[in-house]
């Protein structure tokens, strides 16, 4: 089952990559605000249904994919083909 | 206007982060396949409409946000509030 995980810096946490993007784009003549940079993880997991896939991926996020102290994550499980 | 940019390694390009995620999750007892790690950029841009926002962000991706040689990008502009 295919899934996409969106990992974002939590609000209020310093986001140096987002600041660098804002500054860099400003130097190129673009005006942007509130730039934030996170990670995008896509994977396929063996699961009986989408609830099972969601539960497995939640454990993966807590254990390896994200740092729950400073990052939040959003799990999107694709409907089975 | 808010926008989300999903930046992924192109198919066929070596993705060491994705491989590390697969290996790491395997060591934790999870079975996953085809893991890929990309970047997620969220920002707000001044634009007259969503087509303008899309065009501006495409230029940002080509110039700074992505490496078009090895990465593909997907731009999602949110409907104006």
From TrEMBL, chains A, B:
Q: Which Gene3D superfamilies match?
A: Phosphoribosylformylglycinamidine synthase subunit PurS
Q: Does the keyword Metal-binding apply?
A: no
For this UniProt record, the keywords arranged alphabetically read as follows: ATP-binding, Cytoplasm, Ligase, Nucleotide-binding, Purine biosynthesis
Q: What GO biological process, any one, is recorded here? A: purine nucleotide biosynthetic process
The keyword rRNA processing appears for this protein: no
Which GO MF terms does the UniProt record name?
A: ATP binding; ligase activity
Sorted alphabetically, which InterPro entries does this protein's record hold?
PurS, PurS-like_sf
Question: PANTHER family given for it?
Answer: PHOSPHORIBOSYLFORMYLGLYCINAMIDINE SYNTHASE SUBUNIT PURS
Full protein name:
Unannotated protein
What organism does this protein naturally occur in?
freshwater metagenome
